[in-house]
Structure formats: C-alpha cells, structure tokens
Amino acid sequence: MGLARHRVTGQNMRQTPDPASTRVVKAVARSRGVDVTDLPPLHDVVDTEALDALFAPRLSGEPRPEGITVRFSYAGRDVVVRSESGVEVGPSDATCEPSATD
Fold first, then answer.
1. Rounded-to-10 torsion of CA 8, 50, 47, 28
2. What pLDDT, on the 0 to 100 scale, is given for residue 13?
C-alpha cells in the first residue's frame, strides 16, 4: 500500500528561479500550515548545497537531465524532489531513507 501524496508545487524544477532547498521549505511549510520560520533548518537533514546543485542548471546554462529524484524526511513529512515534476510532500514514512538517484 503506497502513501497518499500530494504535489505541493507543480512546476517542473526547470521552470522556477528558486533553488530546490527553498522550494522544499516552502512546500513543507504550506503542507503543515505554518510559516517557513517555524520549521527546523533544512540543512540539519540534507546537504542543501548538494540538493540545490543537483537541480540547478549546469554552468553552461543547460538544464540537468530528467530522472533525478531525491527523497528524505523533513519536519514530519516525506519529501520527494523530482527534476521533472518538482516537490512532492506526503505524510512521513518511517521507512524513508535518504537517497539520491539519477
């Protein structure tokens, strides 16, 4: 049985100027109904520089390839960041392990 998920942000990661880490914090805050300042620092659970680099355009300006997915738990939520569909936030899954694939 899978988790009930909802996409908090529907934009492709290539269609926004916000770095991935900012989008994650905003999405989790929105899903919890709190202000971003009420959340713990994201860098306590994931390397935010690495997360941003994974989804930022290359130095040449070309986009990263599709198919990049990072999953982790943050502030009581299960977060999935996908290059092609943005940030998805769902209920925390106790079996969620940090991972990155591309």
1. -10
2. 53
